[in-house]
């Protein structure tokens, strides 16, 4: 429901864990530009 709001709210601390599974552990957290691209790629499912 308010997922987009949560992301835009600045909950960046939960993004790394939410995006990085055990395999992506060594990888750095996704940058904001990447998140914006993904967000623009898929329409917000607020409905």
TrEMBL record:
Top-level taxon in the UniProt lineage: Eukaryota
Name of this chain's protein: Uncharacterized protein
């Amino acid at each position: 429901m308010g997922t987009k709001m949560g992301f835009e709210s600045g909950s960046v601390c939960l993004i790394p864990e939410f995006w990085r599974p055990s395999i992506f552990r060594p990888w750095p957290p996704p940058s904001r530009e990447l998140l914006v691209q993904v967000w623009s790629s898929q329409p917000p499912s607020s409905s």
